[in-house]
Structure formats: structure tokens, C-alpha cells
Write a structure and sequence with these properties.
One of its GO terms (molecular function) is biotin--[biotin carboxyl-carrier protein] ligase activity. The chain contains 5 helices and 12 strands. The protein is of the alpha+beta class. The protein has 2 domains: about 5-180, BirA Bifunctional Protein, domain 2, CATH 3.30.930; about 190-230, SH3 type barrels (Roll), CATH 2.30.30.100. The model has no long low-confidence stretch (mean pLDDT about 90).
């Protein structure tokens, strides 16, 4: 895909900016900001976005609305991390972890049948606040050196374009790739969702992108929720 990149020094949210221009912008328009003052995560949560991180939103115009599109962003980040020698894992549905800590999040928003804005927040060179260092990390913290942010951006976009093409042809190939890169399968998890919580063993990610959990009393399909897992060792 050919990208048209809009670079901003500061913005409240790249996703909000992208949603505002999406109706009149071509697919492949990318909004990149040095910093966000009101970055967003899932459920409207605040996402710290100081200078040094990758804060980017991509305007996509797929043929149909599909919640599995968020996996395209997660796969792009995992593959970009691998280019720099970092092993990343997808934590269903929209986070990327390294060594048990969050390094990236993906958020998809849009207007059904019109456009999708995919926001990607990746900790690159930005300093992780002291109160988050037990749960979050950055590429700089892992590698012990600063990275060229434009190079990281280009790697993410290259992989995003590749996975988006695969997704358009056959979404099930994306699901298969996610299952190979997820940290959840065969792990004990707890999922908190709007109707309560479910605990058990994550046994599969189904074709529709939902998580299948074996509670011990039966298998439950979870479409959306916040997942916590028991501490595990990473390869």
C-alpha cells in the first residue's frame, strides 16, 4: 500500500484527528504525532504518549466492517519488533507484550461501511513512568539504545500493509498467524467483561476472532473483555 503521511508535532489524539479527515482522505492516509495530549486506549482509557514513542493512526477503507482487523495491527507490531531482534507476543485482543510487559496497544474505530481508523501506540524511545515500569516497557529499555523513530515507523507500516493485503484476501490466515504469536493459548486466564468475569484455560482463538475459554464446566466463547493471565516464562 502507498502511504500518505501527515506529521504533527502535537495533537490531542491521532485517532480523533484521523477520524475527522477520514471521509475526505484516501485509504492509506497516516497521521503521526510526536506526542499526544489525550491519547486513547480501549474503553476511552488514557494512553500516555510523550515524545519518543510511535503514535500513529492509519485510515483504512475495507470492503466491510470486521472486528478482526485489530489483529492486523498487532501482527504488524510483532513483526516490526522482530526486525529489531525483539520477540513480541499478542495478548488478545489488542495488546503486544514483551517479557511479560506491555509495549504496544492497537485501537480500531470508525464508521461502519465508510472507514476504519487504526491507532497504534508503540513505546520506542519514550521514558516509561516509574509507576508503570512493572507492567510496561519500551524498545529502548529492552535494547539499551535509542532507535531511529522513522525507521521503526516504516517497519510497522511495511508490515501493516502486507498483513492488510492478506486480511483482505483471507482473514483466516490472519487468525492463524495470531494463534502462532499469542501468549494466551493453554494459559490460565481471567476475563472481565460487561456481564461479569470468566476464569479458565484459554484454549483457542476462533475464526471470528473470539477467545474460547475452558472453565472446567464447559467452554465459553468470549468476544470482548480485559484479560489477565498467570505469570509465565517467555522465550
Amino acid at each position: 500500500m502507498e502511504w500518505k503521511i501527515i506529521r504533527l508535532d502535537e495533537v490531542d489524539s491521532t485517532n480523533e484527528y484521523a477520524k475527522g479527515i477520514a471521509p475526505s482522505s484516501p485509504e492509506g492516509t497516516v497521521v503521526v504525532a510526536k506526542r499526544q495530549t489525550a491519547g486513547k486506549g480501549r474503553k476511552g482509557r488514557f494512553w500516555a504518549s510523550p515524545e519518543g514513542g510511535l503514535w500513529v493512526s492509519v485510515i483504512l477503507k475495507p470492503n466491510r466492517s470486521d472486528p478482526r482487523l485489530v489483529f492486523v495491527g498487532a501482527l504488524a507490531v510483532v513483526d516490526a519488533l522482530a526486525d529489531f531482534g525483539i520477540r513480541g507476543w499478542i495478548k488478545w485482543p489488542n495488546d503486544v507484550w514483551v517479557g511479560g510487559k506491555k509495549i504496544a496497544g492497537i485501537l480500531t474505530e470508525g464508521k461502519a461501511g465508510k472507514f476504519v481508523v487504526m491507532g497504534i501506540g508503540l513505546n520506542v524511545n519514550n521514558e516509561i513512568p516509574s509507576d508503570l515500569r512493572e507492567t510496561a516497557t519500551s524498545m529502548r529499555a529492552i535494547l539499551g539504545k535509542r532507535l531511529e523513530l522513522n525507521e521503526v515507523t516504516n517497519r510497522v507500516l511495511d508490515h501493516l500493509g502486507r498483513w492488510y493485503k492478506i486480511f483482505q484476501r483471507n482473514p483466516l490466515k490472519v487468525i492463524e498467524a495470531v494463534k502462532e504469536r499469542t501468549i494466551l493459548i493453554n494459559r490460565e486466564v481471567k476475563v472481565i467483561h460487561s456481564d461479569g468475569e470468566i476464569s479458565g484455560t484459554a484454549v483457542d482463538i476462533l475464526e471470528d476472532g473470539s477467545l474460547l475459554i475452558d472453565t472446567g464446566e464447559g467452554k465459553v466463547r468470549v468476544v470482548y473483555g480485559d484479560v489477565s493471565i498467570r505469570p509465565i516464562r517467555y522465550g
